[in-house]
């Protein structure tokens, strides 16, 4: 699956395409730096040079086991002559190249692996290449920072869940908060079953008591409650599989909610996550 992002290089928007965990940069967008009305002509002019053919051909030899080297040699022998012409589509079809891709449609164009795109940028302008590399590196640093933050959040939640497990082992007696009438009532809506177990109220009841508030009972939940709610969904699925009737599941879920909330209220790692430190 392909995903795209953009960077800004000297007031030109350059699209980046991620395919098979590899970065491809739009040569079409880069060519607008030279001539915005004839981008295809600019790319073809570059590809007919001997240096370009040798570079993209060597890249394919190093990275593409299916690359047709015989066809590549034929292009290399013709490169540089006045009669030689080569389009990205012709190159791809003749050699089974993967370093350059051609996309049709409104958001299509010619894309090249970043190694090849940087070589094309050198041909366009050395200064343009430097700005392109700078912006590309900036984007990669931002992505790395986002991944690190996501990893920290996942690590923190893992520590939180471990704490829940440890506290559950220590606790022997959990007080009940739902009365018999509440426990005996059958909730046709499974979502409300979880709401009652955790919040002690159904979604409709919450709305009646908070008619001035936007959203629903879960929108107003704390981070601790959201963590427990996610866990209750898994527990409820297990209890359903075991064949427990709804009123018994409500009792079990309520006990789980009480136990986990007690663990989370004073959890140091969760406090750090809420404060934004995440470590």
Automatic annotation (TrEMBL):
Name all KilA-N domain ranges: 3-139
Q: What InterPro entries has UniProt attached to this entry?
A: KilA/APSES_HTH (IPR018004), KilA_N (IPR017880)
Q: Which Pfam families match?
A: KilA-N
Q: Which residues form the signal peptide?
A: none
What's the protein here called? KilA-N domain-containing protein
The cross-references to SMART domains, in alphabetical order and at most eight, read: KilA-N
Domain of life of the native organism = Bacteria
């Amino acid at each position: 699956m392909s995903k795209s992002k953009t960077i800004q290089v000297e007031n030109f928007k350059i699209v980046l395409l991620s395919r098979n965990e590899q970065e491809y940069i739009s040569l079409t967008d880069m060519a607008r730096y030279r001539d915005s009305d004839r981008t295809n002509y600019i790319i073809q002019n570059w590809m007919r040079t001997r240096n370009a053919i040798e570079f993209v051909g060597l890249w394919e030899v190093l990275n593409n086991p299916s690359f047709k080297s015989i066809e590549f040699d034929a292009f290399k022998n013709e490169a540089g002559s006045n009669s030689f012409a080569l389009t990205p589509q012709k190159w791809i079809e003749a050699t089974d190249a993967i370093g350059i891709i051609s996309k049709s449609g409104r958001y299509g164009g010619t894309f090249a692996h970043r190694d090849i795109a940087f070589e094309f940028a050198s041909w366009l302008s050395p200064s343009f290449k430097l700005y392109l590399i700078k912006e590309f590196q900036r984007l990669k640093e931002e992505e790395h920072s986002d991944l690190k933050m996501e990893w920290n959040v996942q690590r923190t939640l893992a520590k939180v869940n471990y704490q829940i497990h440890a506290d559950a082992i220590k606790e022997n007696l959990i007080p009940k908060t739902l009365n018999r009438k509440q426990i005996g009532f059958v909730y046709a809506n499974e979502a409300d079953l979880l709401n009652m177990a955790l919040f002690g109220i159904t979604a409709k009841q919450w709305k009646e008591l908070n008619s001035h508030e936007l959203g629903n009972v879960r929108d107003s939940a704390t981070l601790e409650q959201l963590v427990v709610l996610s866990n209750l969904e898994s527990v409820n699925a297990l209890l359903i599989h075991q064949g427990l009737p709804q009123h018994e599941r409500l009792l079990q879920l309520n006990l789980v909610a009480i136990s986990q909330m007690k663990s989370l209220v004073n959890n140091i790692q969760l406090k750090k996550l809420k404060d934004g430190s995440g470590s």
